[in-house]
Amino acid sequence: MTAVQNSAVKRSRWSIGPASLVAAAFIGPGTVTTCTLAGANFGYALLWALLFSVLACMLLQEMSARLGLMTQQGLGEVLKSQFNQPLIKSTVFTLVTVAIFIGNGAYEGGNIAGAALGIEAILPAVNFPWPLLIVAVAFVILIQGNYRVFERALIFLVLLMSVAFVTTFILTKPDWSALFQGMKPQVPEGAWLTIVALVGTTVVPYNLFLHASAVKSKWHSTDDLSLVRKDTVISIGIGGLISLAIVATAATAFFGQQVNIQSAADMSIQLQPLLGSWASVFIAVGLFAAGISSAITAPLAAAYALSGMMGWPTDGNNIKFKLIWMVILLSGLLLSLSGYKPITIIWFAQIANGLLLPLLAGFLLYVMNKSDLLGRYKNSWLHNLLGVLVILVALLLGGKSLYFAFS
Q: What secondary structure does DSSP assign to 209-265, as a single string?
């Protein structure tokens, strides 16, 4: 083997990408706000719920990625091919389509509004319709129709979020003993809704479609399975680290201080006496990166999901593929300009998430046990056991989410 080939192999062993889209997708304004409120209201006590969420996300995303690699199909394409009975197929299609459109449209509105809040905090003196700029940036990246462009843009934004939030976390000098104590399961009074939100913002159903399609766009050989798994653990682990940094920062600075925190934007203001004017800059940059990265991935995931289920090409340059993400992007823009608060928009997305997650996780578990589809790469008994556990927890939390939402 030549030196050039050795170098290529060495690079490929550390190649990451598709799972970074998942991390960019779930670290959006909803996650930033939820983690901020978790830390401000309950200190470090809910870090165990965040840890569970990240591990559950890794488990389901590994299945989705393995499916994409072994079948060279997206999850939407696999679901379309596996359900042949007309009534079942139409029911599955309707449920997924409606939930993806409603859920992604609502998330997109929150993503655009959150990114705009970040820019407003950086440039408070500038009066400009920032949601239009956010949508324009997302449009320019998505219209390229090139997976490598998506991947590089989102890796950059994930790294930007990491620097912003982890730096803030270090500067607040967290209580490490209390942080590790927070890994022990406990449910403080009034914490259930926040636990539901932590899981709901980390284990996002549309990411199952996004990951499988992204993997098949990058890797094509069964020999790449170890790379796929490494990518999943590293990228989602970084996303979990960002979430932990936000919770811990809010816990250190605000828990028990009688400070009114409603969002990450409030956190940037309240941190100024502790960290100086740089606090608002770090938080604002992190919020902007979280919003714009998710504003790119939500339309992309919807396009992969619906194109696959309709039997359309999942090529980024296909006109039908482009029309789907354009509709999601436009609906998000209209929601962000509607006058509704971002937290209200995200609330609607959480309802859709609570309904869709157990359903899609169940579908995923079903296809991951098909020998004719995956051969020796189908789920092991341990995969199935852990998958059933996640689905049961998702059902419990989804039920609680709907109960709290409607009450």
A: HHHHHHHHHH--SGGGHHHHHHHHHHHHHHHHHHHHHHHHHHHHHHTTTT----SHH
